């Protein structure tokens, strides 16, 4: 496997007595979309700020694209970042500001990059608008355009869809989807459905510590459990546990059968088909089958 895009090993950040991030370790592979999840105050923005090189870790090792992000110029041209509360300077037109930033980043065709990035975020018409005249959503998209200019190999987006209307939020999600496989993207959001849909893997933080990190399919139990919605008939869970691959079966709620299975040694489609087949044979009628659980359920379970 190639070198990870980001590697944290026992990273801690203290602000005086306050431990904002506590011995956190995880890595982000190149080309993946990686989610940072956690309730308010969990340490997401602090982690982002360390990845961007805005803050020094108090302890531990952090490598971004193979270098320490705080080393001067280490990530120039390699990193695009949308900070959580990006504030645009007053007294600039959007296009002029983006062009200026593109020039600062050393991009060879600054105005072209600025126009393309603004198009990408759906703000073509804002080129000559003063930054102070932008709505919150427009300012956020301008800041996002800045992060995308020059197509850097790593893009860090702290709550990119917060405060955007649904149509624009969908557009931003599409931009992230389009980057998958070509650029590495780290994204934080409180919208867990959005992260479940977008991310290949994620880290869940809770009060500064790492609660869990892994592939999205692991976090959502795709290889470990499924639910069967029962319309009618009597389900006998002990019979189901005799089926190959089934570890446990129980009625989770009226009409909802939860089956846990051994996804290491058995293919999910085979275990699901066997279970459904058995239920049908015993006269049980089924309304639906769903694999895994939602990321939201998982997060609520562990936090
Ligand atoms: N500069 C600072 N000085 C002191 N404490 C800080 C500082 N920055 C963050 N903290 C504290 O560190 C903890 C983590 O904050 P952080 O902003 O990283 O959380 P977050 O997960 O991004 O939260 P949110 O979802 O609300 O944005 C919080 O308790 C916060 O009060």
UniProtKB/TrEMBL annotation:
Highest taxon above the source species: Bacteria
One Pfam family this sequence matches: ABC_tran
A single MF term (Gene Ontology): ATP binding
PROSITE patterns: ABC_TRANSPORTER_2
Assigned keywords, A-Z: ATP-binding, Nucleotide-binding, Transport
InterPro entries, per database record: AAA+_ATPase, ABC_transporter-like_ATP-bd, P-loop_NTPase
Residues of the ABC transporter domain: 6-232
Family from the record: Belongs to the ABC transporter superfamily.
Protein name: ABC transporter ATP-binding protein
Species of origin: Hyalangium rubrum
